[in-house]
Fold these 2 entries.
Entry 1:
Amino acid sequence: MRRWAGRAARARPAGFSLLELLLAAALGVLTTAALAQLFVSNARATALQTGQARLQESARLALHFLADSARSAGYFGCGPANLADGLGGTWRGDPLHDLTMPVAGADDAGHADEARSWGLGNRELKPGSDIVLLRRIEGLGHDLAQPYHAAGDLVLASSFAPEPGQLTVLSACGQLGVLGIETIARPSGRVTLAGSVDIDALAPAGFAYGDSAGPAATVLATVVSEVYFVARGRFVNNRGDPTWSLWRKAGRADEVVSGIDDLQVLYGIDPTPNDADLAPRRYVTGDGIGAGIVRAVYFRVTASSVDAVGEEDRPLAQTVSQTVALRNPRVPI
């Protein structure tokens, strides 16, 4: 019995030694640290990929907006050749309304006075960035229900609701009439011209818009002047830092693409528009357009990931560019 009791006592487990406990704890710490490092690395890789995708999408969207507006710039209907100015030239020289400038811009426009002169209010513009204006008429315009002349009524065949003070034109094949609208009656579509409109200048004696004996395909349309610029965005990034965005002003200013840090624009000028060569001869900044005919516009956009995701804990950045040929390179008025 004593022999079996001794064997039973020796067979009972003696537990872990202190050395074994320390070794197990060290292995646990190393395993936890490795898992934590793997988690952090995966999180950084995911954030980096998300940031890269975001900046690429921002750059693509910014160029899409700019190129789409540039392709339509200068479209004022059925090839107007003569100007019938019913407003006495009050719109001339104003970059927001001057019809003779379908494309305009300002270089290095990050100043408060530039924001005011372009009707951008108190927006904080990005220093060193450019402003570009691209002008056209809205859509295809609204057809006349009957010919319009100085002694007649201006009646539309469809509904039309321009914003108060918006510049409006009668676009015919061979004539572009500049006018202002006071009201449009419903449902007849009868237009009441603003008191400032000179009817004799808008519709000279013997001339009728939409008359079968004169210019056909006359439409009434509003003038759209889209101003693109880079200004302070509405949000902050993951570090609490303010961000920059691409804005578009067409009546009101809207933030169209976030994460745009810079916009640079050059204009392809054709100094000899009457020859057979329609390619631009040189590229200038917005301040150098002058009386030149703009054939193409070069856009360079710097986009960012907005959030700090890079190895240096800063937002990623990428610069892309595109040159857009104008479909309507000039307004012959």
Entry 2:
Amino acid sequence: MTFEVIFMTYSYVHIKINEEAFPNRLMLYDKELMTGRGMGKYWYKEALRKKGEEFFKENLKKYFPKNDIIYII
């Protein structure tokens, strides 16, 4: 088995679509944790993303030691 880990990227459009489609949703966008990426897109700040990358690497190797991680982005 191989793994690909992709962190969420948000945009103004995604937020508005989710607000309309799921009015009682949990708001996943948090401007304290995210930073602008241009063109109205946001992703996790570098320090937080690195912590998440370490978490996935450690746990995927721990629970799936014979499998590979193709990439984490």
